[in-house]
């Protein structure tokens, strides 16, 4: 009647890895839709993941209303960029000569990518299957080029387009080498396409012709509020506290009032019965967007999704400040 694929992985928020359940390929028999089978299956998956230690569930949705009804909220974005190869014709003054590498050996690439996980927000620590999807998106290995600072993987040109399958370009020299590589295709293709975040390095440095072709949102669903709050990282040097109430119509154990203390980039959370200060209040889907940093506390407050006194909203604003969450992976 209904089926889905799911697995455990880690996704980085606030500079720390958080155990999550990744969900994909959710489907219900067309003749049985509308009878609640999909919701029942998803509830079972969420409870199974919670029991296994996952504190979040993450997925790329085919439809929003169904998952919003299950308590998912927008967690971050995937941006689809494109530019003509000539946009990369003037690389930085320092540029590496990238050497071919084996796309079937992801171990050295994972080491190169690790600093991005800690500095960014929302990137998954890829499993073997995710590495295969990233580097062999069409079933065939991409052409991989790297140096000691990063890498770029490209697919063979098709229909006058060159697709970047994956990239990690944290250093200026590596970025310069990647730009020279892409510019070298200007006689063969009209556009270079790639996935990235709002502050993607190729997008920041590209010249005329850069275009944001699509911006897609992925969803997250908190499974255990206390564990969720204590597993992520927080802004360095911040000492702050906040009290808030969460409503969750699916996982009743998440309902209640919470007190969060943040110090030395760590959070200590607990459920409380009595409060000294009026708590802020939100639904679990709103908490999801606040937790990841996809939406700030003040933005959610102005939208009427987060309720409370302004001083408490400002505390939440400081606690959950982080870079805009994104991930290039789809599953």
Task: Output the CATH topology of the largest domain.
Answer: Nonspecific Lipid-transfer Protein, Chain A
CATH uppermost class of the largest domain: Alpha Beta
Compute the separation of the termini in Å. 21 Å
Major pleated sheet: 11 strands, mixed
Number of strands: 16
Describe this structure in words.
This protein has 331 residues and is an alpha+beta fold. It has two domains: 177 residues, Nonspecific Lipid-transfer Protein, Chain A, CATH 3.30.1050; 124 residues, Gcn5-related N-acetyltransferase (GNAT) (Aminopeptidase, 3-Layer(aba) Sandwich), CATH 3.40.630.30. Helices cover 27% and strands 33% of the residues. The chain is built from ten helices and 16 strands. The strands form two sheets. The protein has an eleven-stranded mixed β-sheet with strand order 5-7-8-9-10-4-11-3-2-1-6, sandwiched between helices. It has a five-stranded mixed β-sheet with strand order 14-13-12-15-16. Helix 1 links the parallel strand 2 and strand 3. It is globular. The mean pLDDT is 94. It holds the Pfam family Acetyltransf_9. It comes from Azospirillum humicireducens. GO terms for molecular function: aminoglycoside N-acetyltransferase activity.
């Amino acid at each position: 009647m209904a089926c889905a694929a799911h697995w455990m992985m880690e996704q980085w928020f606030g500079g720390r890895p958080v155990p999550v359940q990744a969900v994909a390929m959710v489907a219900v028999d067309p003749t049985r839709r509308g009878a609640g089978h999909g919701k029942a299956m998803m509830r079972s998956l969420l409870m199974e993941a919670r029991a296994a230690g996952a504190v979040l569930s993450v997925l790329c949705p085919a439809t929003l209303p169904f998952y919003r009804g299950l308590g998912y909220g927008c967690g971050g974005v995937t941006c689809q960029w494109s530019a003509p190869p000539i946009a990369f014709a003037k690389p930085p003054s320092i540029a590496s000569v990238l050497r071919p590498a084996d796309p079937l050996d992801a171990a050295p690439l994972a080491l190169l990518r690790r600093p991005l996980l800690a500095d960014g927000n929302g990137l998954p620590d890829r499993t073997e299957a995710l590495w295969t999807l990233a580097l062999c998106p069409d079933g065939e290995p991409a052409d991989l080029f790297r140096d000691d600072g990063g890498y770029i993987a490209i697919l063979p040109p098709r229909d006058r387009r060159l697709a970047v399958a994956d990239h990690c370009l944290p250093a200026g020299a590596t970025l310069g080498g990647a730009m020279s590589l892409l510019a070298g295709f200007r006689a063969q293709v009209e556009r270079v396409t790639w996935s990235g975040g709002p502050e993607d390095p190729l997008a920041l440095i590209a010249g005329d012709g850069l275009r944001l072709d699509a911006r897609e949102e992925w969803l997250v669903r908190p499974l255990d509020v206390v564990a969720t709050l204590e597993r992520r990282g927080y802004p360095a040097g911040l000492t702050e506290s906040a009290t808030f109430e969460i409503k969750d119509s699916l996982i009743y154990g998440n309902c209640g009032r919470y007190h969060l203390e943040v110090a030395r980039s760590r959070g200590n959370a607990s459920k409380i019965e009595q409060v000294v200060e009026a708590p802020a209040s939100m639904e679990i889907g709103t908490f999801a967007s606040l937790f990841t940093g996809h939406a700030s506390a003040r933005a959610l407050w102005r939208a009427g999704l987060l309720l409370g006194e302004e001083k408490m909203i400002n505390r939440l604003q400081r606690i959950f400040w982080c870079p805009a969450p994104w991930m290039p992976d789809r599953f």
